[in-house]
């Protein structure tokens, strides 16, 4: 990948989930572009963050999980980016060249969830012009209540039977594809909320050989034909710069 001109690189980027996989690769690629680049990995308190920097020019919501309880997966993959954006939007530099950016790392599992859902659910997932955060969080609450009765997780069949929500076939929790479909909806809502002030995008990096699905024997086989984490950074860099 050819270097991006340092003149157009944002000076300070917040990256979540930067301790492994695509997150590490994104940080590495950004740091290679400019000696002036600053990467913010994590802060325990916003006041500490404020002491370290005055303005951000981009947020990359990369943190995600594929296994665990339904509630935890939705909390990390869907609710997590909302909290990060809410907390750090005040730090975005609205005067940044080309506008500040928010990039959500989604998944190809999201459209598969939509395609295999009931007609009613598909209509909801496609309701991007009229989507509200209240509607999105209502689905999260509905599924969490159902999963609580099942001991923390719903199988793919239960997700479809109880809620009409489709799921990605293969490795991963039944909640993973749902969490990414809801993340895409959230991105549409956030885009409307930010208007012309911030560029907000979500994208799927493709099949990447990370440990996201490391618990699956199927994933161990598929990893041989998956792209490297570094290859998965290309779209992120295009959206950032």
TrEMBL record:
One of its GO terms (cellular component) is membrane. GO terms for molecular function: oxidoreductase activity. Keywords: NADP, Oxidoreductase. The keyword NADP applies. InterPro entries: NAD(P)-bd_dom_sf, SDR_fam. It comes from the Eukaryota. The keyword Oxidoreductase applies. Belongs to the short-chain dehydrogenases/reductases (SDR) family. This is NAD(P)-binding protein. The lineage of its organism: Eukaryota, Sar, Stramenopiles, Ochrophyta, Bolidophyceae.
């Amino acid at each position: 990948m050819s270097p991006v001109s340092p003149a157009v690189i944002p000076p300070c980027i917040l990256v979540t989930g930067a301790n492994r996989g695509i997150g590490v690769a994104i940080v590495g690629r950004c740091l290679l572009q400019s000696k002036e680049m600053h990467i913010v990995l994590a802060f325990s308190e916003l006041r500490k963050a404020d002491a370290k920097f005055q303005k951000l020019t981009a947020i990359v919501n990369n943190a995600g999980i594929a296994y665990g309880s339904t509630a935890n997966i939705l909390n990390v993959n869907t609710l997590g980016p909302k909290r990060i954006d809410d907390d750090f939007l005040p730090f975005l530099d609205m005067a940044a060249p080309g506008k500040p950016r928010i990039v959500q790392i989604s998944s190809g599992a999201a459209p598969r969830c939509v395609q295999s859902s009931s007609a009613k659910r598909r209509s909801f997932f496609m309701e991007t012009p009229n989507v509200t955060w209240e509607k999105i969080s209502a689905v999260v609450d509905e599924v969490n209540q159902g999963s609580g009765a099942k001991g923390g997780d719903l199988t793919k069949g239960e997700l479809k039977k109880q809620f009409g929500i489709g799921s990605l076939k293969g490795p991963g929790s039944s909640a993973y594809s749902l969490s990414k479909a809801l993340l895409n909806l959230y991105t549409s809502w956030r885009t409307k909320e930010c208007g012309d002030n911030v560029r907000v995008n979500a994208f799927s990096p493709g099949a990447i050989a990370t440990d996201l699905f490391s618990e699956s024997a199927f994933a161990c086989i598929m990893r041989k034909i998956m792209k490297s984490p570094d290859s998965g950074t290309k779209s992120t860099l295009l959206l950032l710069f």
